[in-house]
Amino acid sequence: MDKFAVPNKLPGKTVSVLAHRKRRILQDKATLEQKKALKTKRVASAKKHHKFKRPESFVMNYLKAERTAKRIKQTMKRTNLVDFNEPEKSNQKLILVMRHAGKKIFDETTNKIFNTLHMASRHNAVFLRNNKETQVLLKVIEPFVVYGYPTLSTIRELLFKRGFARINSRKTPIQSNAMVEEHLGDKGIICLEDIIHEIYTVGPNFDAVKEFLCSFMVLLNYTINILYTYI
Predict the structure, then answer these.
(1) Distance separating the N- and C-terminal Cα atoms of the chain
(2) Per-residue DSSP letter, 187
(3) What is the mean pLDDT of residues 59-68?
(4) How many structural domains comprise the chain?
(5) Domain of 78?
(6) Contact status, residue 127 vs residue 215, Cβ threshold 8 Å
(7) Three-state secondary-structure class, residue 76
């Protein structure tokens, strides 16, 4: 009779499997509830950020763009009086330009200039040739930028501390001289010191070096401290 007796308890292994299954079901339920709560939070956040805008805000944006367009038009009229064949008055060939204002700019011309100069966002800084063409562009974007003459130590500090290269349209840290030689070796530039020299002297390969480098991300106070003098 004993061998046909039904045990009073289920085998321990079966109990363990059922316990694990119950725990897993509870965990899946908790995870699902957590996902639903997160989705609800995201929807609420999206609605919060897409609040109704007052008509006055659109009018203000239009007026800002209109004022900027008038200022640019006046600047371009004065530019017509500039003789671009006249020798440069300043002996300084290089300037450092930093965008410190204009989180949202509603004038298309100003935005195009910033995009051309690789200064699409605030706190972008770039090295530019100090010539009449650059001066005209700076007059257009003057309310949004600060600029001046960088020293050799300024250039070296920016490159070593904040220098990035633009490789395959991606911002990449300059990790070695081998990287410099790979992309600028055909120009005779094989190390970071060569880049510094080319920028400081505004050499024949200045434009190639400028295209290789990304714009520098700096704060306004930092830029003011490192500039030698203002134009």
Answers:
(1) 108
(2) G
(3) 56
(4) 1
(5) 55-163+214-230
(6) no
(7) helix
